[in-house]
């Protein structure tokens, strides 16, 4: 009789669990860095190298501080770099202090404004709207890329690859389709030439918002239906703010106003939580005081997927 060989138990994924996605953040950092370098040295953005350095340095410093305060297992610079690079591309200010404040606000919001383990606001979006509301010299330059269709197309292709890897292309395409439809409806109603909505859709800031901000997997609804509803709602509110209230930066204000509705959408239309790497099963909640990102790092080292301990 052959001896029976015992094998370690195979961990089966829980029903409805989402398969872990490959971390898209390094690629996203590379794309944003390339856009920034292109803007600095080709398009001559109204931003100086010292301001870029201060924005990036403040974001990394804030991430390091919160890593220590929250007693996270290790320092992770990816999220802070993405937020800081987005601010470098959109925020304009003549003050180094305001640039540093923007990065600190963005990174701190990830740790301070949370609901059941998820960020409530997109970090860079929240920092931008807070600074726009405060009496400081800060503004957003949405037309700095120009309206060349070729560059907008290249930017869309790069952003499309990013959201595809982040598994959030549905919210981006829902937003773009709804926003383009509203612009077309406005053009037909007013009898404007079609060159106007085409010019509006060629904005580099619009593409950057759609592919890099609203598609943030940590601040979008968990279910596909919820993400589609959220994308359409943001497009509708942004259109209303821009063309009915005649306010600038309607996209930023709309996303900030509707981000608190994501927990409600998750409750009404539940779905699997997005993870960068394999997480513990739903029956094991995150330890108190430990963020999801830290938990993912700890669990990825455990072959059986046991719950991490702070």
Structure description:
This protein is mainly alpha-helical and 310 residues long. It is 58% helix and 3% strand. The protein has 2 domains: 25-140, no CATH class; 149-268, no CATH class. It contains 13 helices and 4 strands. The strands form 2 sheets. It has a two-stranded antiparallel ribbon with strand order 1-4. The protein has a two-stranded antiparallel sheet with strand order 2-3. Helix 10 crosses helix 11. The longest helix is centred in the middle third of the chain and has 22 residues, at 169-190.
Major β-sheet strand ordering:
1-4
Span between termini: 48 Å
Count of individual domains: 2
Low-confidence stretches: 5-20, 278-310
The gyration radius over C-alpha positions equals 21 Å
Q: What fraction strand?
A: under 5%
State the share of residues found in helices, binned by percent: 55-70%
List the total number of helices.
13
List SSEs in N-to-C order. Answer: HHHEHEEHEHHHHHHHH
Strand count, sense and closure of the main sheet?
Answer: 2 strands, antiparallel
Structural class: mainly alpha
- Report the mean per-residue pLDDT as an integer: 80
Q: Total number of β-strand segments? A: 4
* Global shape: globular
């Amino acid at each position: 009789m052959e001896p029976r060989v015992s094998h370690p138990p195979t961990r089966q994924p829980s029903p409805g669990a989402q398969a872990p996605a490959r971390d898209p953040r390094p690629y996203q950092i590379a794309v944003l860095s390339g856009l920034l370098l292109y803007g600095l040295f080709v398009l001559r953005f109204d931003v100086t190298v010292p301001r870029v350095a201060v924005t990036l340095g403040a974001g990394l410093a804030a991430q390091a501080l919160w890593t220590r305060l929250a007693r996270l297992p290790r320092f992770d610079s990816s999220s802070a770099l993405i937020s800081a690079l987005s601010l470098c591309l959109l925020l304009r200010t003549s003050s180094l202090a305001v640039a540093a404040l923007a990065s600190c606000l963005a990174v701190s919001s990830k740790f301070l404004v949370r609901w059941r383990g998820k960020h409530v606001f997109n970090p860079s979006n929240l920092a931008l709207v807070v600074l726009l509301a405060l009496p400081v010299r800060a503004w957003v330059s949405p037309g700095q890329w120009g309206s060349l269709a070729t560059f907008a197309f290249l930017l869309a292709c790069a952003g499309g690859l990013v959201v595809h890897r982040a598994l959030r292309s549905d919210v981006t395409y829902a937003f773009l389709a709804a926003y383009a439809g509203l612009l077309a409806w406005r053009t037909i109603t007013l009898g404007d030439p079609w060159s106007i909505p085409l010019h509006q859709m060629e904005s580099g800031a619009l593409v950057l918002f759609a592919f890099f901000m609203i598609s943030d997997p940590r601040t979008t609804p968990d279910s596909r239906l919820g993400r589609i509803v959220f994308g359409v709602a943001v497009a509708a509110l942004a259109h209303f703010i821009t063309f009915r209230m005649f306010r600038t930066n309607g996209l930023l204000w709309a996303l900030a106003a509707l981000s608190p509705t994501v927990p409600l959408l998750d409750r009404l239309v539940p779905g699997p939580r997005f993870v960068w790497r394999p997480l513990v099963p739903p029956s094991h909640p995150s330890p108190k005081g430990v963020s999801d990102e830290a938990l993912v790092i700890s669990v990825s080292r455990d072959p059986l997927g046991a719950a991490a301990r702070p």
